[in-house]
C-alpha cells in the first residue's frame, strides 16, 4: 500500500510502500502526526488531487508556519488536508485560511506559543460555504458537519506538523480549549436579517471570504425575556463586562455571535450592524476600581489601557477600544433565544479578513479588520 509520509522534524516528504498488514492509523500515531484523533491515511492519489487543485508543483511553498517556521509546500498542505478528512473541494477555503493565519498582523507565532487559551477561529462567508456544505445553523459550533470539522482540523494539523505547535513543546497554553481540535464555522447568511459580515466590510454578496481571529471558546449569552434590541444587547453587554478575560486589561477584539431568534428581534426593529456594535460599545465596561481589585495589592498603573482613559475609581473602562473591534455574526438554528460572546486574545493579534481565491472576489490580499495591521 502506498502512503505519503511526512516528517515533523524536516521539510522533506516522500512516498513509501508499507506492508499490507500495517494498520496505517496506528502507524501515523506512532510517527507523531496526529492531533490525538485518528487520521485518514494520505495516499498518493488523494494528495495528488489536492495538489492539482492548488495549481500543481508539489514543492511550491505556500507559506511558512510559526513558531518552527516550517515550509508549507503544496504537497504538505495536501497531506494534512487528507489526514484531517477534507474533501478536495475544500481546498480554496483551507488555502485562504492558511494565508490569513500567516499574515503578519495575526501573529501566529504568539498565538501558537502563548500560555493563554487562544485558538484561531475561522469563519467563512459567501457562496463557497454553501457550495461545500458548511453549517452555520443548528449546532453551528458543534459536531456533525464534515466541512466545518475537517477544515478546522486541517489548520490545526498544519500548525502542529509544520509549525511545531505541540503542547508542552512550543505550545505553552496552560489549559487550551476544545477549539484547538477544530474551530471553523460559517455565518447563517440565508436566514440572517442583517447583511453578511463580509458585505459589511466592502465585499459583494457573491464574493467568498475567510475571517480569522485568535479566540477563546464561545460563552453562552441567554435572554428569553426581551422583545427589543436593548434588552437583548444589555445581556450581551453583561457578558462582555467581565474582569476575567484578556480583553478587560489588554483590549483587542471580540466576536459577537447573535443567535437567529435574537438577530430577528433586533432586525425587526430596524437596527443595523453599526447600531448593534455602537450600542454594545457604549453600554458595556467595568469600573476602574474593579479592574484594580480595589487597590488592595497597591496602585498598579495599567500601561495597556489607552492614555486618554482616566484612572479614577468609577471610570468606566471598556474591554475593547472601538466599536470596530466588535466583529458581529449571525448564526444558529431557528429555535432558542441564545447568542454567544467570543473574547479574543487581547491586542497581541489582529483579526484578518481575506478573499477566497477563485471565488469571484479575486486575490486582493488580506485586510486587517478592526484595527491597524501594525503589531
Chart the SSEs and their pairings:
Blueprint: E1 2-6, E2 13-17, H1 24-30, H2 44-54, E3 61-65, E4 70-73, H3 74-84, H4 91-101, H5 108-113, E5 119-125, H6 127-131, H7 146-161, E6 184-186, H8 197-200, E7 209-215, E8 219-222, H9 229-240, H10 247-250, E9 254-259, H11 260-268, H12 273-283, E10 286-287, H13 288-291, E11 316-317, E12 326-331, E13 338-343, E14 352-355, E15 366-368
Parallel strand pairs: 5-6, 9-12
Antiparallel strand pairs: 1-2, 3-4, 5-7, 7-14, 8-13, 9-13, 10-11, 14-15
Tags for this model:
4-stranded mixed beta sheet; 375 residues; globular; disordered C terminus; single chain; alpha+beta; 5-stranded mixed beta sheet; 13 helices
Please describe what this structure looks like.
With 375 residues, the chain is α+β, with helices and mostly antiparallel strands. It has 2 domains: 1-216, no CATH class; 217-344, no CATH class. It contains 13 helices and 15 strands. Strands 6-5-7-14-15 form a 5-stranded mixed beta sheet. A 4-stranded mixed beta sheet has the order 8-13-9-12. A hairpin with a 4-residue loop joins strand 3 and strand 4 (70-73). The longest helix is centred in the middle third of the chain and has 16 residues, at 146-161. The protein is globular, with a radius of gyration of 21 Å. The chain starts with a strand and ends in a 7-residue tail after the last strand.
Amino acid at each position: 500500500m502506498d502512503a505519503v509520509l511526512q516528517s515533523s522534524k524536516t521539510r522533506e516528504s516522500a512516498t513509501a510502500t508499507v506492508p499490507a498488514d500495517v494498520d496505517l492509523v496506528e502507524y501515523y500515531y506512532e510517527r507523531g502526526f496526529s492531533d490525538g484523533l485518528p487520521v485518514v491515511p494520505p495516499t498518493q492519489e488523494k494528495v495528488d488531487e489536492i495538489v492539482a487543485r492548488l495549481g500543481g508543483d508539489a514543492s511550491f511553498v505556500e507559506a511558512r508556519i510559526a513558531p518552527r517556521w516550517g515550509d508549507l509546500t503544496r504537497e504538505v498542505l495536501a497531506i494534512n488536508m487528507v489526514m484531517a478528512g477534507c474533501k478536495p473541494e475544500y481546498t480554496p477555503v483551507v488555502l485562504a485560511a492558511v494565508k490569513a493565519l500567516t499574515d503578519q498582523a495575526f501573529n501566529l507565532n504568539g498565538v501558537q506559543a502563548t500560555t493563554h487559551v487562544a485558538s484561531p477561529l475561522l469563519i467563512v462567508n459567501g457562496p463557497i460555504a454553501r457550495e461545500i456544505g458548511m453549517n452555520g445553523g443548528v449546532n453551528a459550533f458543534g459536531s456533525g458537519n464534515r466541512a466545518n470539522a475537517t477544515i478546522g482540523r486541517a489548520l490545526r494539523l498544519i500548525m502542529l506538523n509544520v509549525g511545531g505547535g505541540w503542547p508542552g513543546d512550543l505550545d505553552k497554553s496552560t489549559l487550551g480549549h476544545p477549539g484547538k481540535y477544530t474551530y471553523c464555522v460559517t455565518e447563517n447568511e440565508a436566514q440572517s436579517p442583517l447583511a453578511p459580515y463580509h458585505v459589511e466590510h466592502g465585499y459583494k454578496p457573491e464574493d467568498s471570504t475567510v475571517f480569522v481571529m485568535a479566540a477563546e471558546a464561545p460563552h453562552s449569552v441567554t435572554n428569553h425575556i426581551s422583545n427589543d434590541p436593548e434588552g437583548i444587547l444589555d445581556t450581551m453587554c453583561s457578558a462582555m463586562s467581565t474582569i476575567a478575560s484578556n480583553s478587560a486589561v489588554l483590549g483587542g477584539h471580540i466576536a459577537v455571535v447573535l443567535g437567529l431568534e435574537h438577530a430577528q428581534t433586533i432586525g425587526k426593529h430596524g437596527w443595523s450592524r453599526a447600531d448593534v456594535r455602537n450600542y454594545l460599545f457604549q453600554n458595556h465596561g467595568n469600573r476602574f476600581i474593579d479592574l484594580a481589585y480595589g487597590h488592595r495589592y497597591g496602585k498598579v498603573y495599567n500601561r495597556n489601557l489607552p492614555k486618554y482613559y482616566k484612572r479614577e475609581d468609577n471610570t468606566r473602562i471598556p474591554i475593547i477600544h472601538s466599536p470596530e473591534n466588535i466583529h458581529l455574526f449571525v448564526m444558529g438554528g431557528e429555535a432558542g433565544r441564545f447568542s454567544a460572546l467570543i473574547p479574543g486574545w487581547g491586542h497581541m493579534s489582529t483579526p484578518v479578513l481575506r478573499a477566497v481565491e477563485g471565488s469571484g472576489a479575486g486575490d486582493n490580499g488580506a485586510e486587517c479588520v478592526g484595527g491597524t495591521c501594525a503589531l
